[in-house]
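Ops channel
N.P.: pipeline sanity check, posting one input/output pair.
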């Protein structure tokens, strides 16, 4: 239990600071502790429900959350994530880890090639945003991440959304995708509820500090830390899969 509480607090800090659901770091750590891939994904989804709801509440109070922009993506993500349990059941653990690695590499490359912050934010058709959300929701929940690992780089790199605003939007997207993912995976028996709830409750403490830390740190340092985080995830997954 002590290990799970420590994991929850750590993942919560990362989730609040980087605007991710937490599965990006939690799934590899649970695999390291010996959990089956599908169960690790299920536990991560439970944690995401806790951290994303609480984190989005804090971001909204601070005025950094653009609800209107993310709603279309969120609805698409919710519908897509409802299919995630069935998709996960159709693939082997090794295949799911390979997809997870591809997600992390994409996010790392997209953030590495910096977009100028002062560029004007693009307006995108709501149907296009819905389609982006549907794709991210179905694929990300299949591998136990909230989708923001790819959504934040898309918002920053392609739509020129300011980084802090994109991070808040990414965490809010996880609310939609994680709730639907929870429904889908629970129906198929992929979730260890006891471990998930312990980690989820502990993550609330971490999210609180991560959100406040996010608003203190300057954007340049935050981007560098985010790139470093994704790089470590990629290195771990490459080592796990290929070595």
């Amino acid at each position: 239990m002590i290990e799970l509480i420590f994991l929850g607090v750590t993942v919560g800090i990362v989730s609040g600071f980087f605007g991710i659901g937490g599965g990006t770091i939690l799934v590899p750590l649970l695999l390291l502790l010996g959990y089956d891939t599908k169960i690790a994904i299920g536990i991560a989804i439970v944690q995401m429900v806790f951290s994303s709801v609480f984190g989005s509440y804090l971001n909204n109070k601070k005025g950094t959350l653009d609800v209107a922009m993310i709603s279309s993506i969120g609805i698409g993500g919710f519908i897509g994530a409802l299919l995630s349990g069935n998709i996960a059941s159709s693939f082997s653990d090794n295949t799911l880890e390979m997809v997870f690695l591809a997600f992390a590499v994409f996010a790392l490359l997209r953030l590495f090639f910096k977009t100028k912050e002062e560029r004007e934010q693009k307006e995108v058709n709501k149907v296009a945003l819905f389609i982006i959300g549907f794709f991210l929701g179905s694929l990300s929940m299949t591998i136990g991440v909230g989708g923001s690992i790819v959504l934040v780089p898309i918002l920053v790199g392609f739509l020129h959304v300011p980084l802090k605003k994109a991070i808040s939007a990414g965490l809010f997207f996880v609310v939609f995708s994680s709730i639907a993912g929870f429904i889908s995976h629970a129906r198929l028996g992929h979730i260890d509820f006891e471990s998930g709830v312990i980690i989820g409750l502990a993550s609330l403490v971490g999210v609180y500090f991560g959100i406040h830390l996010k608003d203190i740190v300057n954007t340049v340092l935050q981007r560098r830390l985010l790139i470093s985080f994704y790089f470590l995830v990629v290195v771990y997954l490459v080592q796990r899969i290929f070595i």
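N.P.: looks fine end to end. DSSP finds eleven helices and no strands in the chain.
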